[in-house]
Amino acid sequence: MARALTEDQLLDRVAGLFAQHGFDHTSLKDLADAVGLSKAGLLHHYPSKEALFEAARDVGRTHSRELFEQVGRVPPGPARDRRAVELLVDFALDRPGLVALETRAISRLGAEDLDAHRLDALSQHVLAVFGVEPDTADTERLVRAIGVLSALAVLSLAANHTGEKTAWRPHIIATCLDALGHRDPSHPEA
Protein backbone atom coordinates (compact mmCIF):
# COMPACT_ATOMS: atom_id res chain seq x y z
CA MET A 1 0.00 0.00 0.00
CA ALA A 2 1.29 3.48 -0.74
CA ARG A 3 2.95 4.69 2.45
CA ALA A 4 1.48 8.18 2.26
CA LEU A 5 -2.09 6.88 1.96
CA THR A 6 -4.24 4.85 4.31
CA GLU A 7 -6.42 2.20 2.74
CA ASP A 8 -9.48 4.48 3.12
CA GLN A 9 -7.65 7.33 1.39
CA LEU A 10 -6.51 5.04 -1.41
CA LEU A 11 -10.04 3.74 -1.94
CA ASP A 12 -11.45 7.26 -1.84
CA ARG A 13 -9.04 8.37 -4.59
CA VAL A 14 -9.85 5.45 -6.85
CA ALA A 15 -13.57 5.96 -6.22
CA GLY A 16 -13.16 9.54 -7.43
CA LEU A 17 -11.57 8.32 -10.65
CA PHE A 18 -14.30 5.74 -11.22
CA ALA A 19 -16.86 8.51 -10.65
CA GLN A 20 -15.16 10.84 -13.09
CA HIS A 21 -14.54 8.39 -15.93
CA GLY A 22 -16.87 5.44 -15.28
CA PHE A 23 -15.71 1.91 -14.58
CA ASP A 24 -15.07 0.94 -18.20
CA HIS A 25 -13.09 4.09 -18.98
CA THR A 26 -10.84 4.02 -15.92
CA SER A 27 -7.59 2.17 -16.54
CA LEU A 28 -5.49 0.34 -13.98
CA LYS A 29 -2.61 2.64 -14.89
CA ASP A 30 -4.72 5.72 -14.11
CA LEU A 31 -5.73 4.19 -10.78
CA ALA A 32 -2.16 3.24 -9.89
CA ASP A 33 -0.87 6.71 -10.83
CA ALA A 34 -3.54 8.36 -8.68
CA VAL A 35 -2.44 6.47 -5.58
CA GLY A 36 1.29 6.52 -6.19
CA LEU A 37 1.78 2.84 -6.95
CA SER A 38 2.89 0.91 -9.99
CA LYS A 39 0.27 -1.19 -11.76
CA ALA A 40 1.93 -4.31 -10.35
CA GLY A 41 1.97 -2.78 -6.87
CA LEU A 42 -1.71 -1.97 -7.06
CA LEU A 43 -2.52 -5.47 -8.35
CA HIS A 44 -0.53 -6.91 -5.42
CA HIS A 45 -3.09 -5.39 -3.04
CA TYR A 46 -6.17 -5.73 -5.27
CA PRO A 47 -6.16 -8.58 -7.82
CA SER A 48 -8.26 -6.72 -10.42
CA LYS A 49 -9.91 -3.45 -11.28
CA GLU A 50 -13.25 -5.02 -10.30
CA ALA A 51 -11.83 -5.98 -6.88
CA LEU A 52 -10.64 -2.42 -6.36
CA PHE A 53 -14.04 -1.03 -7.36
CA GLU A 54 -15.79 -3.44 -4.99
CA ALA A 55 -13.40 -2.56 -2.15
CA ALA A 56 -14.27 1.12 -2.59
CA ARG A 57 -17.97 0.27 -2.63
CA ASP A 58 -17.56 -1.90 0.49
CA VAL A 59 -16.13 1.08 2.39
CA GLY A 60 -19.21 3.08 1.41
CA ARG A 61 -21.55 0.26 2.39
CA THR A 62 -19.81 -0.20 5.74
CA HIS A 63 -20.12 3.48 6.56
CA SER A 64 -23.76 3.57 5.44
CA ARG A 65 -24.58 0.60 7.70
CA GLU A 66 -22.86 2.34 10.62
CA LEU A 67 -24.81 5.51 9.86
CA PHE A 68 -28.06 3.57 9.71
CA GLU A 69 -27.31 1.89 13.05
CA GLN A 70 -26.50 5.21 14.76
CA VAL A 71 -29.46 7.06 13.33
CA GLY A 72 -31.83 4.12 13.76
CA ARG A 73 -31.69 4.54 17.53
CA VAL A 74 -33.36 7.96 17.20
CA PRO A 75 -37.13 7.97 16.53
CA PRO A 76 -38.19 9.29 13.11
CA GLY A 77 -38.58 13.05 13.03
CA PRO A 78 -36.52 16.25 13.00
CA ALA A 79 -33.91 15.04 15.55
CA ARG A 80 -33.25 11.90 13.52
CA ASP A 81 -33.05 13.90 10.29
CA ARG A 82 -30.55 16.32 11.89
CA ARG A 83 -28.36 13.49 13.17
CA ALA A 84 -28.42 11.76 9.78
CA VAL A 85 -27.53 14.99 7.97
CA GLU A 86 -24.63 15.71 10.34
CA LEU A 87 -23.20 12.20 9.92
CA LEU A 88 -23.66 12.29 6.14
CA VAL A 89 -22.01 15.70 5.86
CA ASP A 90 -19.01 14.57 7.89
CA PHE A 91 -18.67 11.44 5.77
CA ALA A 92 -19.01 13.43 2.53
CA LEU A 93 -16.43 16.02 3.56
CA ASP A 94 -13.94 13.30 4.53
CA ARG A 95 -14.49 11.04 1.49
CA PRO A 96 -15.19 13.10 -1.62
CA GLY A 97 -14.27 10.28 -4.00
CA LEU A 98 -16.76 7.86 -2.50
CA VAL A 99 -19.45 10.53 -2.49
CA ALA A 100 -18.75 11.35 -6.14
CA LEU A 101 -18.95 7.66 -7.04
CA GLU A 102 -22.18 6.99 -5.19
CA THR A 103 -23.90 10.12 -6.47
CA ARG A 104 -22.84 9.55 -10.07
CA ALA A 105 -26.15 7.77 -10.61
CA ILE A 106 -28.03 10.94 -9.61
CA SER A 107 -26.08 13.10 -12.04
CA ARG A 108 -26.63 10.62 -14.88
CA LEU A 109 -30.37 10.04 -14.47
CA GLY A 110 -31.84 9.02 -17.79
CA ALA A 111 -28.46 8.44 -19.41
CA GLU A 112 -27.31 5.11 -20.72
CA ASP A 113 -24.97 4.25 -17.86
CA LEU A 114 -23.25 0.92 -17.75
CA ASP A 115 -22.30 1.56 -14.10
CA ALA A 116 -25.88 2.14 -12.90
CA HIS A 117 -26.29 -1.40 -11.53
CA ARG A 118 -23.17 -0.88 -9.43
CA LEU A 119 -24.17 2.48 -7.98
CA ASP A 120 -27.53 2.22 -6.30
CA ALA A 121 -27.09 0.29 -3.02
CA LEU A 122 -25.65 3.10 -0.91
CA SER A 123 -28.15 5.67 -2.16
CA GLN A 124 -30.99 3.33 -1.23
CA HIS A 125 -29.47 2.83 2.23
CA VAL A 126 -29.28 6.59 2.71
CA LEU A 127 -32.87 7.09 1.58
CA ALA A 128 -33.90 4.49 4.16
CA VAL A 129 -32.18 6.57 6.88
CA PHE A 130 -34.71 9.29 6.07
CA GLY A 131 -37.56 6.79 6.13
CA VAL A 132 -38.03 6.79 2.36
CA GLU A 133 -38.54 3.79 0.13
CA PRO A 134 -37.77 4.43 -3.57
CA ASP A 135 -41.28 3.34 -4.60
CA THR A 136 -43.01 5.32 -1.85
CA ALA A 137 -46.33 7.06 -2.21
CA ASP A 138 -44.90 10.01 -0.24
CA THR A 139 -43.56 11.91 -3.23
CA GLU A 140 -42.72 15.04 -1.24
CA ARG A 141 -40.50 13.18 1.23
CA LEU A 142 -38.82 11.27 -1.62
CA VAL A 143 -38.09 14.50 -3.48
CA ARG A 144 -36.80 16.17 -0.31
CA ALA A 145 -34.50 13.20 0.50
CA ILE A 146 -33.11 13.17 -3.05
CA GLY A 147 -32.64 16.93 -2.68
CA VAL A 148 -30.56 16.30 0.44
CA LEU A 149 -28.38 13.77 -1.39
CA SER A 150 -27.93 16.09 -4.35
CA ALA A 151 -27.10 19.15 -2.24
CA LEU A 152 -24.82 17.09 -0.03
CA ALA A 153 -22.89 15.77 -3.03
CA VAL A 154 -22.45 19.07 -4.81
CA LEU A 155 -21.69 21.14 -1.71
CA SER A 156 -19.28 18.67 -0.11
CA LEU A 157 -17.37 18.27 -3.37
CA ALA A 158 -17.21 22.06 -3.75
CA ALA A 159 -16.03 22.45 -0.15
CA ASN A 160 -13.27 19.91 -0.78
CA HIS A 161 -12.32 21.67 -4.01
CA THR A 162 -12.05 25.07 -2.31
CA GLY A 163 -10.33 23.66 0.78
CA GLU A 164 -13.01 25.20 3.01
CA LYS A 165 -14.51 22.09 4.58
CA THR A 166 -14.70 23.46 8.12
CA ALA A 167 -16.17 26.81 7.07
CA TRP A 168 -18.72 25.19 4.73
CA ARG A 169 -19.87 22.42 7.11
CA PRO A 170 -22.56 24.37 9.03
CA HIS A 171 -23.93 25.83 5.80
CA ILE A 172 -24.12 22.40 4.16
CA ILE A 173 -25.97 21.04 7.19
CA ALA A 174 -28.41 23.98 7.14
CA THR A 175 -29.02 23.56 3.41
CA CYS A 176 -29.70 19.83 3.78
CA LEU A 177 -32.07 20.41 6.70
CA ASP A 178 -33.85 23.08 4.67
CA ALA A 179 -34.25 20.56 1.84
CA LEU A 180 -35.96 18.23 4.32
CA GLY A 181 -38.26 21.04 5.44
CA HIS A 182 -36.50 21.67 8.78
CA ARG A 183 -35.32 25.23 9.17
CA ASP A 184 -32.11 25.21 11.20
CA PRO A 185 -32.59 27.78 14.01
CA SER A 186 -28.89 27.68 14.93
CA HIS A 187 -27.84 28.75 11.46
CA PRO A 188 -27.23 32.51 11.16
CA GLU A 189 -29.41 32.81 8.05
CA ALA A 190 -32.41 31.07 9.62
TrEMBL record:
Residues 4-64 form the HTH tetR-type domain. The keyword Plastid does not apply. Residues 27-46 bind DNA. GO terms for molecular function: DNA-binding transcription factor activity; transcription cis-regulatory region binding. The keyword Amino-acid biosynthesis does not apply. InterPro entries: Homeodomain-like_sf (IPR009057), HTH-type_TetR-like_transc_reg (IPR050109), HTH_TetR (IPR001647). It holds the Pfam family TetR_N. Keywords: DNA-binding. This is TetR family transcriptional regulator. It comes from Saccharothrix texasensis.
